[in-house]
Design brief:
- This is ABC transporter permease.
- Keywords: Membrane, Transmembrane, Transmembrane helix.
- It comes from Streptomyces iakyrus.
- Helix 3 packs antiparallel against helix 4.
- This protein is flat.
- The chain has a 4-stranded antiparallel beta sheet with strand order 1-4-2-3.
- Helix content is 65%, strand content 8%.
- The two termini are 50 Å apart.
- The chain contains 12 helices and 4 strands.
- It is α+β, with helices and mostly antiparallel strands and 335 residues long.
- It folds into 2 domains: 233 residues, no CATH class; 59 residues, no CATH class.
């Protein structure tokens, strides 16, 4: 080979596309958050897998050894033994981590993902390297959303497997109902939808404030308010069923999501149950003819799930659309 051939040979260079470069830079910049998320999923998944296997076996053996599975269990069954306490703790840890996820996601999205990069100029540097602001924001939303949904739905699947087990001690002993807040959220689509809404809200707050610490604080408060409002609205997202009982039967006893209880007069008016201190005939003398209870049966699980999920996704979509509009106004034709 001559020197001329060497000079004339084209150099082989590997070019990285802007999108791939943005993805790699993002994963490298936020590798601590990625490792934290993987660790959180691993801990919660490990707790649920343990609860489904040896945890459930030892708790159930302890439960049956105490005679609590009999038709007339003894009074000691009201207090769990050590094996059942460990089982209960493992499940509570998994549920607690999932319930904490929206706050962690909102804080990270507002503070580190967006606010810090706008504050220290990293975002503008990326925009000058063949990455448009719109593509930058899309990557900031898409990559975490994919990881959040994948991890959260994995935990939801594991918890549903545990919940549907015929030998799940907590289900048998009635310590958790399908309508309990943590169980209700992790057993359906709400947990993943909450994470997506928290991500979108955090990103929007970060774009609005453009500073890490203020964005972190405001995002946490906003996500907390959103979760609180939806928890309060949950019983009213689907029509309730009503059960009415006579004075002789007493107040309705329902093991489900109770929305409202009270008393009925002869005219059918709903009034609070009067306080009578056990005095015979007191309710009738006060004009009470029946008791009532509005409630959601277990068959309302998925209607309530999907209604709340829809609201959360609507909040997420609105926050994402507002974020893109805000970014376009601030960067002009660069978007």
């Amino acid at each position: 080979m001559t020197a001329l051939d060497t000079v004339g040979a084209p150099a082989l260079t590997r070019r990285t596309s802007p999108s791939r470069g943005l993805l790699l830079a993002m994963l490298r910049l936020h590798r601590t958050a990625l490792l934290f998320w993987l660790g959180l999923v691993a801990v919660a998944a490990g707790a649920l897998l343990w609860a489904m296997g040896p945890g459930a076996d030892t708790a159930w053996a302890e439960y049956t050894d105490m005679g609590c599975d009999q038709a007339r269990p003894n009074l000691g069954c009201d207090s769990p033994g050590p094996a059942t306490s460990r089982y209960q703790t493992a499940v509570a840890v998994a549920i607690g981590l999932v319930r904490l996820l929206p706050l962690l996601t909102g804080a990270w999205a507002g503070g580190a993902l967006i606010g810090r990069e706008l504050e220290n100029g990293t975002a503008r540097l990326a925009w000058t390297q063949s990455v448009s602001p719109a593509r930058w924001l899309a990557a900031k939303l898409a990559v975490p959303a994919l990881l959040l949904v994948t991890g959260t739905l994995t935990l939801t699947l594991l918890h549903r497997m545990l919940w549907s087990s015929d030998r799940a001690p907590l289900s048998v002993m009635g310590w958790r109902g399908w309508h309990d807040t943590g169980t209700f959220e992790i057993n359906g689509t709400i947990a993943a939808a909450e994470a997506l809404a928290a991500l979108a809200v955090g990103v929007l707050v970060g774009l609005l404030l453009r500073r890490a610490l203020p964005a972190l604080g405001v995002a946490v408060l906003t996500v907390m308010s959103l979760v609180y409002v939806l928890d309060a609205l949950r019983p009213y997202l689907w029509p309730v069923k009503t059960v009415v009982t006579s004075l002789d039967d007493g107040t309705p006893s329902i093991d489900s999501m109770i929305v409202e209880t009270g008393a009925l007069t002869a005219s059918g008016a709903r009034v609070p149950i009067p306080w009578c201190s056990g005095e015979p005939g007191c309710q009738a003398r006060k004009g009470i003819t029946h008791y009532y209870a509005d409630y959601h049966p277990a068959s309302h699980f998925w209607p309530l799930q999907l209604m709340e999920t829809g609201l959360l996704l609507a909040v997420a979509a609105l926050a994402v659309a507002t974020a893109f509009v805000l970014l376009r106004r601030r960067t002009g034709a660069a978007v």
